[in-house]
Amino acid sequence: MVTIPLIAAALLAGAQTTPPQTQPAAPAAGTAAATPTVEAAVSDQAGMPVGTITQINGNIVVIDTGTIKAGVPLAAVGPGPSGGLITTVTKVQLEAAAAQNAAQLKALLVAGTSVHASDETTAVGTIKTADAQFVTLTTPKGDVRFPAGAFAARPSGLIVSMTPDQFNAAVAQSLGASAK
Fold first, then answer.
1. In the CATH scheme, what architecture does the domain 2-12+105-178 have?
2. What is the secondary structure of 68-100 as a DSSP string?
């Protein structure tokens, strides 16, 4: 068995949530449209602070509320009427969704659970063992161990936050490294 290191560029931080898909309001005439960037402040549609963007991973924006870090779709964050960034959920809604997702994730991180790549369709393995720090997957190429933070609950089931190609490359590299 080998351990797959945390691959920061491929993983999403914290709980993953999917807020309602409504579009942020367009900026008022004469104001510059804000673009989501790391360290940008985000407010809700009423102008109340939600948090700060800590990462942008493809189409996921990770917002730190001060209590949790949660991923929201990039489409759910956009320019507000005064030029700042707004999101489609309040801080309370985001934190509640993250808590619900964390509970769902914990329930799925048990032996026998099938795991898919981030595309949610490519099966990559089955959980052999899991604890608070690591999850061991049985894959066609052998047993590999991932950080528990590499997994997310989705409506389709449990995913590892890597594309099929990223997963296969990480497994091949780790199995190759352990053979040396």
1. Roll (2.30)
2. -EEEEEGGGEEE-TTSSEEESS-HHHHHHHHHH
| Secondary-structure class of domain 15-89 per CATH | mainly beta
The answer to whether 71 and 14 are in contact (CB under 8 A) is yes
Q: What was the pLDDT predicted at 101?
A: 86
Distances (CA, A) of 127 to 109, 133, 149, 152, 173: 7, 14, 14, 13, 20
Order of strands, sheet of 85-87, starting from the edge strand that comes earlier in the sequence: 15-16, 69-73, 60-64, 49-57, 41-43, 85-87, 77-79
All CATH 2.30.30.240 domain ranges of the chain, comma separated, are 2-12+105-178
pTM beyond 0.85: the answer is no
Q: Consecutive 10-residue runs of the chain (180 residues): their mean pLDDT?
A: 34 37 43 75 94 88 92 89 89 93 92 94 96 93 90 88 90 74
